[in-house]
From TrEMBL:
Residues 11-69 form the Phage shock protein PspC N-terminal domain. Coiled coil: none annotated. InterPro entries: Phageshock_PspC_N, PspC. Keywords: Cell membrane, Membrane, Transmembrane, Transmembrane helix. The keyword NADP does not apply. It comes from Corynebacterium pollutisoli. It is found in: Cell membrane. PANTHER family: PHAGE SHOCK PROTEIN C. This is Phage shock protein C (PspC) family protein. Its main location: membrane. It comes from the Bacteria. The chain crosses the membrane at residues 42-66.
Length: 69
C-alpha cells in the first residue's frame, strides 16, 4: 500500500489485494493516488456506459500489466 507521505515519483501502481471486486485494478489506482475507491469505480462505470467498450478493454489490459501488491 502506498503511503500518503511517499513522493509521487516513488509510488508504484499495483493491483490491490485488499480493496478489490474483480482484479483490484481500480482499487490499486485509488490507493496509489489516495482517492476514494468508490468514486473511482463510479467514474469507471459512468465512462464505460458512455464509451464504446474502450474502458473495459483498458481494464482487462491493466489486469494483465499491473503487478499485484
Amino acid at each position: 500500500m502506498n503511503d500518503f507521505n511517499t513522493p509521487m515519483h516513488q509510488r508504484r501502481l499495483t493491483r490491490s489485494l485488499t480493496d478489490r471486486y474483480v482484479a483490484g485494478v481500480l482499487g490499486g489506482i485509488a490507493e496509489t493516488y489516495n482517492w476514494n475507491p468508490t468514486l473511482v469505480r463510479l467514474i469507471f462505470i459512468a465512462v464505460s456506459l458512455v464509451g464504446s467498450g474502450t474502458p473495459l478493454l483498458a481494464y482487462i489490459v491493466a489486469w494483465f500489466i499491473m503487478p499485484q501488491e
